[in-house]
Amino acid sequence: MNTPHLSVHHLNAGYGRARVLFDINLTITTGTIACIMGRNGVGKTTLLNTIAGLITPTTGTITHNGTDITHHPPHTRIRNGIAYAPQGHDTFAPLTVAENLHVAHHATKRGGPELIDAALHRFPRLQPLLHRRAGLLSGGQAQQLAIARALVTNPTLLILDEPTEGIQPSIVAEIEQAITDIAAEGITVLLVEQYLDVALRLADTVTVIDAGHIIHSGNRTDLTDETAHTLMAI
Ligand SMILES: Nc1ncnc2c1ncn2[C@@H]1O[C@H](COP(=O)(O)OP(=O)(O)OP(=O)(O)O)[C@@H](O)[C@H]1O
Ligand SMILES: [Mg+2]
Q1: Which of the ligands is closest to the CA of residue 39?
Q2: Which burial class, exposed, middle or buried, applies to 7 when counting CB atoms under 10 A from its CB (0-12, 13-18, 19+)?
Q3: Which tens digit of pLDDT belongs to each residue from 18-61?
């Protein structure tokens, strides 16, 4: 039986008086990859930031494994298994790769040091870079570190905002493979992905946002490539 891992009900959110998200409803099943798509500026990051607890919604609820987390602060969400790799592959720039992983791991304590080994095994390119400062990494390396840093918190829900943005194709393929493997291990993935081909290969469900409204939501298998292209062109 499919269990709802995360549900968003009638969510409205924005910045000050500027409303960005309008009546968003979303249900994500445990162990699936939910892909959010839409053009620039439609509110994708705002939705992820709200789910991660960085933005308080004006109205609506967010439920995680049956618990209403709408008013939980971000650190409580992380401790309860929600990890977030924000857009722009942000890392702790002055710290080394190893320090980035240890700080995130230590802050959450959701498992032993094997989590760090597993993250490095997943992204072997990081292994020889352990003592390099994160601020000196290439975009692709930094993105892999950002995902690895989320993984060392032992999440059950991994939120990724455009992990392939501005990254060369060979690394995009590695990141795509990593996301496939992560989901196959039972971790639920909430992904914002602009590259249509990557999104359509990864997604179990596809939600398209336009101007803060959901204009399409359904199973990937019910979406023809033609419909997907049409939706993305709106
Ligand atoms: N901190 C902020 N303060 C005020 N407005 C903001 C803020 N962050 C984003 N916005 C506005 O909210 C709207 C949605 O932005 P958001 O970053 O959620 O879009 P997005 O779909 O993630 O875009 P992109 O594809 O470019 O990442 C935009 O109009 C943006 O200008
Ligand atoms: Mg964004």
Answers
A1: 1
A2: middle
A3: 999 999 999 999 999 999 999 999 999 999 999 999 999 999 99
DSSP state string for 187-226: -EEEEE---HHHHHHH-SEEEEEETTEEEEEEEGGG--HH
Domains and CATH numbers, the chain: 4-233 (3.40.50.300)
At 168-205, the pLDDT tens digits run: 999 999 999 999 999 999 999 999 999 989 999 999 99
Q: Is 82 helix (H, G, I), strand (E, B) or coil?
A: strand
Q: Which two tokens stand for residue 46?
A: 């705002």
Which residues are CB-neighbours of 187 under 8 A, at least 6 positions away? 31, 155, 156, 157, 158
| Atom number of ligand 1 nearest to Cα 14 | 12
Asked whether 81 lines ligand 1 (CB < 6 A), one says no
Q: What span, in angstroms and rounded, lies between the C-alpha atoms of 142 and 9?
A: 34
